[in-house]
Amino acid sequence: MFSAMARAATTTDAFNAVAEPRRRQILDVLAGGERPVNDLVDLLDLAQPLVSKHLRVLREVGLVDVRDAGRQRVYRLNAVPLKAVHDWVKGYAQAWEERFSALDDVLEELKAEENGT
Amino acid sequence: MFSAMARAATTTDAFNAVAEPRRRQILDVLAGGERPVNDLVDLLDLAQPLVSKHLRVLREVGLVDVRDAGRQRVYRLNAVPLKAVHDWVKGYAQAWEERFSALDDVLEELKAEENGT
DNA sequence: TTGACATATACCCATATGGGTATATGTTTT
DNA sequence: AAAACATATACCCATATGGGTATATGTCAA
User: Where is each HTH arsR-type domain found (chains A, B) (predicted)?
Assistant: First the structure.
């Protein structure tokens, strides 16, 4: 038995992992190839413990893999969990395209008015 | 002058708005057409104030528009801000496809082994 | 105008979060 | 073995977050 949680963890899936800008930055760097932690510290200009913490979230969600290399820990991108995000958001592509073409229509109208009705 | 914030707000962009499952549900419903708040309350089986709060976040991020209709407030999807999410995640498509084809290779190998050698 | 209805807001609460500093852990070099 | 290096973890802290209940606000119906 346990009382209802006041708030559920929000760092347990790809959507949340990727909601944090720092973590997107990390993934963006790793997209260019695997990197030890210190590289990320330098590139992100963020305290080392914070980088490690973000990496932990990414690891728990499966967005990165780690490999030991002497005294370094080399992190590597695993983009697979991002497919879920992509699949969800892809469903809205039509919706924003409609919006854009609706805007185009308005602009066309304005242009037509400019040239006399 | 102000002291450094201990933590920045995380509900101020599309990435974060969409990280919350309830809000994705709301958008999924609105994708089927505009809806008054109470419809969402019924469909999501969530307390009305919570729905209103999630709608507020979505509104602030520009993912929904509102329209007054008598004593109802009708919410409507605006998918445009999702394009940013799509654009970012799209850049990783190649990465997860590589992973999948790497997996395919492994499976092929196992299959080959099964049939002798 | 009084009451029902629809929605937003003001609170309270427990917990998650991200940043920070100090330190533990493990590895390589000297 | 000791020192330097690389990384993870344990804390502390302020604040954001999501859920909940009560209530304010505004609109329509009787």
Answer: 3-97
- Domain CATH code at residue A39: 1.10.10.10
Residue A1 pLDDT grade (very low, low, confident, very high; cuts 50, 70, 90): very low
Calpha distance B76→B34 (Å, rounded) = 4
Q: Are residues A17 and A74 in the same domain?
A: yes
Q: Are residues B73 and B112 in the same domain?
A: no
Per-residue CB contacts under 7 A with strand C, chain A residues 56-115? 57, 70-71
Are B31 and B41 contacting, i.e. CB atoms less than 8 angstroms apart? no
Cα(A5)–Cα(A24) distance, integer angstroms:
28
Q: Give the Cα separation of A82 and B113 in Å (integer).
A: 32
Nucleotide nearest to B73 (CA to C1'): C7
Q: What is the number of domains present in chain B? A: 2
Same domain, B111 and B72: no
Query: What's the Å distance between residue A86 CA and nucleotide D23 C1'?
Result: 41
Q: How many CA atoms lie within 13 A of B71 on its CB side?
A: 1
Give B79's pLDDT tier (boundaries 50, 70, 90): very high
The spacing between the Cα labelled CA in B49 and the C1' in C10, in angstroms, equals 11
Identify which of A79, A85, A96 has the shortest CB distance to residue B95: A79
